[in-house]
Amino acid sequence: MLSGAMAQVENTPVTSGHLSGREHVFPVRVYYEDTDFTGVVYHARYLHFFERGRTEWLRTIGVSHTDLGEGRFGEELVFAIRRLAVDYKQPAKVDDILQVRTILSQFKGARWLLKQEMTRLGDGASIALGEVEVLLMNRDGVPRRVPTELLAIIEGR
Length: 157
What we know:
By secondary structure, the chain is α+β, with helices and mostly antiparallel strands. Helix content is 18%, strand content 36%.
């Protein structure tokens, strides 16, 4: 489990969302291209929204996928999804504004567990719940523990 609060990096663009304690909040507007022929968000698009939430959480605490991939933390690192579960609660529709809430609930070694919730702005309705387990790996696919410098960023030190 995390101890300590993650600090939002100065000059992070508003488009990256914001931190509220340990939780990251990222706004997403539903476009026509996200929907099926009925105007309801196509089920696979929720995965895109959740992915953007995780990516912007990293960016907001001061880490980008470019940093990871270019070896900022000692070697080239990437994430791979190990397990993904989504519970669809109710449909989102074109022009809805959603909030993707992301929290790193635990990590051990190379495995990270992130919990996510998508809610509709306005009425606060829960649209979808997600739980994602990712592995931190090097480019050769070998799992890697969180490097000390990255751990310090995550824990807000």
